[in-house]
Design the sequence.
């Protein structure tokens, strides 16, 4: 497994970042990372993205233009608030 960089939103370390997978047939399946400290998250609806692909995406630091293009490709960077994970 690849090492995660700190949360790009709050700087939380790897132990505060959760990997989440949700498979909901015929609805919205996704996988990605969620920061337990600030609620920052990166999710992909493209289930061909494996864990290492998502680590690479999490570890990138993108410009505003790249973030906008990212959303057009079924990827989402957001703040989910506090989830009890």
Sequence:
């Amino acid at each position: 497994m690849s090492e995660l960089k700190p949360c790009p939103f709050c700087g939380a370390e790897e132990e505060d970042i959760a990997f989440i997978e949700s498979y909901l047939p015929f609805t919205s399946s996704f996988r990605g990372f969620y920061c337990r400290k600030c609620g920052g998250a990166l999710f992909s609806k493209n289930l061909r993205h494996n864990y290492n692909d998502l680590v690479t995406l999490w570890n990138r630091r993108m410009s505003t233009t790249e973030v906008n293009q990212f959303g057009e490709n079924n990827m989402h960077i957001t703040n989910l608030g506090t989830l009890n994970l």
Q: What stands out?
A: The two ends are 21 Å apart (CA to CA). The chain has two helices and four strands. The helical segments are 51-59, 64-72. Confidence is low (pLDDT under 50) at residues 81-85.
